[in-house]
From TrEMBL:
Pfam families on file: LRAT
Lipid bilayer topology: Single-pass membrane protein
Enzyme nomenclature, EC number: 2.3.1.135
Name recorded for this polypeptide: Lecithin retinol acyltransferase
Physiological role: Transfers the acyl group from the sn-1 position of phosphatidylcholine to all-trans retinol, producing all-trans retinyl esters. Retinyl esters are storage forms of vitamin A. LRAT plays a critical role in vision. It provides the all-trans retinyl ester substrates for the isomerohydrolase which processes the esters into 11-cis-retinol in the retinal pigment epithelium; due to a membrane-associated alcohol dehydrogenase, 11 cis-retinol is oxidized and converted into 11-cis-retinaldehyde which is the chromophore for rhodopsin and the cone photopigments.
InterPro entries: LRAT, LRAT_dom
Domain LRAT: 50-177
Alphabetically ordered keywords of this record: Acyltransferase, Cytoplasm, Endoplasmic reticulum, Endosome, Lipid metabolism, Membrane, Sensory transduction, Transferase, Transmembrane, Transmembrane helix, Vision
Length: 230
């Protein structure tokens, strides 16, 4: 049975992660103009390689399948609105991506290397070194990715593109990016100044909006939870 409190905390953390990385999905992405003119040495990629594309705040991952094809997990709200593959197979726009993250709907899809990287530089098998884990055979990695193609639930914390890639590459779904974000949140929560700040904001809301349940309860409950967690 799912714990409502844990689900609520998870939802809040996911929204915080989305907000903290909002620049990644902004309409003026750094690689937008560069994408049309970037050339990739796809002959150097091997089937089963992990392709890594560093962004402003996050890193996007995919599995190279050969023949200029990359399997990667992409949030896309259009998947919840239509079954028309001609529409959903088009390159995911920023608006579709953001709404897909919020709606928690995604697919593991296949795109060209150019569409996957979108003008950014590509690192190959960098996770092998950063995680210091033994990778599976490349053919097994590619087959795992191909078996997972299709729609999938999406979560910034529990099921993102890094979880997909690490499962295919190492057999275990992990996301150091999400783990790092959660650690940063823990540091903020454990900082006693957060308790003081939340208490001050709570009192300010009572003064401005009046004494009511929707102002009083958060003003008491949030500082108390932060104090207990710290």
């Amino acid at each position: 049975m799912k714990n409502p409190m844990l689900e609520a905390v998870s939802l809040v953390l996911e929204k915080l992660l989305l907000i903290s990385n909002f620049k990644l999905f902004s309409s003026g992405a750094p690689g937008e103009d560069k994408a049309r003119n970037t050339f990739y040495e796809i002959n150097s990629f091997l089937r089963g390689d992990v392709l890594e594309v560093p962004r402003t705040h996050l890193t996007h991952y995919g599995i190279y399948l050969g023949d200029n094809r990359v399997a990667h997990m992409m949030p896309d709200i259009l998947l919840a609105l239509t079954d028309d593959k001609e529409l959903t197979q088009k390159v995911v726009s920023n608006k579709r991506l953001i709404l897909g993250v919020i709606g928690r709907v995604a697919s593991i899809r296949v795109d060209t290397v150019e569409d996957f990287a979108y003008g950014a530089d590509i690192l190959v098998n960098h996770l092998d070194r950063s995680l210091k884990k033994k990778a599976l055979l490349n053919e097994e990695v590619a087959r795992r990715a191909e078996k997972l193609l299709g729609m999938t639930p999406y979560s910034l914390l529990w099921n993102n593109c890094e979880h997909f890639v690490t499962y295919c590459r190492f057999g275990t779904a992990i996301s150091p990016q999400a783990d790092k974000f959660c650690e940063n949140v823990k540091i903020i929560i454990r900082d006693q100044r957060s308790v003081l700040a939340s208490a001050v904001l709570g009192l300010a809301s009572i003064v401005c909006l009046g004494l009511a349940s929707y102002t009083t309860l958060p003003a008491i409950f949030i500082p108390f939870c932060l104090w207990m967690a710290g």
